[in-house]
């Protein structure tokens, strides 16, 4: 049995005093616990073994507040359900509501925090099976997925060390929205653009993000996005209709002028890489174009340039292309893939 100490500080500086500085946030001896829906599973499977848990649930970071610039600030320990159903999120960022509600189950969304969602770890089977080689769990041991079970794995941005994907739905919408992650450490505060927050695996697959040990996510800032409210969609393809991680997901946002031409566009793909996948050149393809399938297909081809399956997941390349075209079409129609409906277990704010 591994002994674990537990502290529950009441303010941010108290929490920081229990987190030790270091290079790799995942290897830190002292770990933040928020909803615990991922970390506790990893501890039970002996994938992660922190010596101390710093419970941040009493910190004053659970609010969702309007920002002076017209954007929104999401507290790191605001629950995923409270975020999805918040009136300002629903009204101003419907793609975020749709993405969160496409994930997990009502019970998990009631518990899961916004900060924890960003830092949830891959769902690669081998990562969770501590008896198998895995460079992400145990650097230098090898990658069991290469040549193994790859249905959920990457088609973009993989390395010879790791072909895992980031499984979050929420993060795909946050990438499309150009969110900013606000972080505190003993060295002070910093703001990290969402595009720079998650890493590709490269030679260091054990590092999921640019966070270091001792970093605490305090907020996620959403810039104003009123121009996209009428035309956005989140589309998720998965093996079951609910309670399943994505095989491919897409957050699509369009700003369409009176003349039917695209003024601005955002497209982010989920579950295809180690991070939400955005390519500015793919979005540029759509600018000034009429909204039609030809333009959407061209954008999809640029977004997926270089995509390559690992064998069992070759189908994801075609699936992703079709998903991008369909999500953009749904965005034009102003519809959302709300396959996960509001349930009685998940009370709106
Ligand atoms: C059965 C199941 C199905 C799921 N399906 C989906 C799905 O379809 N789509 C989806 O997107 N997600 C899904 N999830 C994942 C779920 O969304 C995450 O587990 C959840 O968002 C993690 O949040 P948490 O607060 O519970 O994090 P925790 O488990 O408490 O923490 C996760 C990690 O984040 C760190 N951490 C947490 N908060 C902070 C902070 N503020 N600062 C620094 N570090 C922090 C912890 O140290 C830990 O490393 C599923 C989970 C389960 C168990
Ligand atoms: S894909 Fe990454 S997480 Fe999965 S076994 Fe390989 S190294 Fe580990």
Automatic annotation (TrEMBL):
<dbReference type="InterPro" id="IPR051312">
    <property type="entry name" value="Diverse_Substr_Oxidored"/>
</dbReference>
<dbReference type="GO" id="GO:0071949">
    <property type="term" value="F:FAD binding"/>
</dbReference>
<dbReference type="Pfam" id="PF03450">
    <property type="entry name" value="CO_deh_flav_C"/>
</dbReference>
<dbReference type="InterPro" id="IPR036683">
    <property type="entry name" value="CO_DH_flav_C_dom_sf"/>
</dbReference>
<dbReference type="InterPro" id="IPR016169">
    <property type="entry name" value="FAD-bd_PCMH_sub2"/>
</dbReference>
<dbReference type="InterPro" id="IPR005107">
    <property type="entry name" value="CO_DH_flav_C"/>
</dbReference>
<protein>
    <submittedName>
        <fullName>4-hydroxybenzoyl-CoA reductase subunit beta</fullName>
        <ecNumber>1.3.7.9</ecNumber>
    </submittedName>
</protein>
<dbReference type="GO" id="GO:0016491">
    <property type="term" value="F:oxidoreductase activity"/>
</dbReference>
<dbReference type="InterPro" id="IPR002346">
    <property type="entry name" value="Mopterin_DH_FAD-bd"/>
</dbReference>
<keyword id="KW-0274">FAD</keyword>
<feature type="domain" description="FAD-binding PCMH-type">
    <location>
        <begin position="1"/>
        <end position="227"/>
    </location>
</feature>
<keyword id="KW-0560">Oxidoreductase</keyword>
<dbReference type="InterPro" id="IPR036318">
    <property type="entry name" value="FAD-bd_PCMH-like_sf"/>
</dbReference>
<dbReference type="InterPro" id="IPR016166">
    <property type="entry name" value="FAD-bd_PCMH"/>
</dbReference>
<keyword id="KW-0285">Flavoprotein</keyword>
<dbReference type="InterPro" id="IPR016167">
    <property type="entry name" value="FAD-bd_PCMH_sub1"/>
</dbReference>
<dbReference type="Pfam" id="PF00941">
    <property type="entry name" value="FAD_binding_5"/>
</dbReference>
